[in-house]
Amino acid sequence: MEQRLANTWRMTVNEKKFIETALHSDLRIDGRRPFDYRELTVKFGREDGSSEVQLGLTHVMGFVSSQLVQPYRDRPNEGTLSVYTELSPMADPSFEAGRPTESAVELGRVIDRGLRESRAVDTESLCVVSGKFVWSIRIDLHILDNGGNLVDAANIAALAALLTFRRPECSLGGEDGQEVIVHPPEVREPLPLIIHHLPIAITFAFIGDENTVVIDPTHFEEGVMGGRLTATLNANGDVCAIQKAGGDGVMQSVIMQCLRIASVKAADITAKIRKAVDSYNTERALSKIRRQPASVAVQVTEPNQIEVKDFLSKHKEKLMLKSEEGGASHSDDMEIEAQSSEQDKSRRRDSTSKSFVGGPLSWDPYSKVKVAPVEKLEKSRSDEPYKGESPKLLADSSTSLLSDEKAATGLQIEKEKTLKDAVKPKHKRKKKASTNTDAS
Question: What pLDDT is recorded for position 269?
């Protein structure tokens, strides 16, 4: 209530009477009923642990951070939780810049009491090394616009920021095993805080001589009210904290009525916060980078000089056999060619299946491409060429590869030899055989 005292001079006597007489008819200046809440909007920032809450014209932003510190001596196995508020003159002219005022300190204590006294946050899970290192959680609340009821808006902003906060994961290492290693988010996924329940703060204002009760007071109603009651409850109806401010007294029956209304409102606000956090978590999971498994390396054999020599020797033997079997029929030659072509196709299929093990998805496009054997290049000339290149280019590449391999093995061919040059005449072979017999 003290934060509105600087603005009471703005309100005239007629304005105050108008608010009081309207409440006697169960009406408020913004059109709500006495126990109606304003529209609540919960948003989240890009970073984890940042929230933005708008309750009517009240605008509050919350941010949660963590730090490794030494624990208290009386609680060596528990972390710490602290709340800090900032009231800038931009939100309300009655707020002063510089050191925190009494209203700022009171706002932080009310929220801190509801969170810490109810043990909503599991502080024992924040312990890293007993008596040495624990996590200290800090909640910073910034008031962007004061439209009334700052306690409820700041409390919702703190809870939304805590639900989306992720602390870094730690591990112990070093020589003695007591060195704390903090892993960045790129190495290990951060861990969320363990929150048992959500303590929701509900504020009631008492206006007039008859103590008319309204919920969620606005900027103008706070300047007229004579007292205020803030009850912090969770969705189960458990009372976590109660604060009574102002000089006007309140009857016990009125307090019990306020607690019953607050339990219903706390359940509704909890459902809205949970729904907003769930939508944020789904968007966060979808925006993660999906890492694909490493591709399988493709092994391609490279021909050596021995394979080239074997290929040339086999080719000469085939030519010799064909020249000796010159009397064979043309049909036999066609059958031999058909069988050889079928064998070449089967070998080609086996080679391609072996070279691309794992399919095209596991093929690494950045691996070094190696030259295929010369035998495969010769056989590929008889098949249909690839559609992307012309047959002439394929033939030129195959002949260039053959020339390079022959030069490497030391074979020099001046011109192409025909079948007659490769096979000796029959009469020469007979004479040579006869001379050998005479000599013996």
Answer: 94
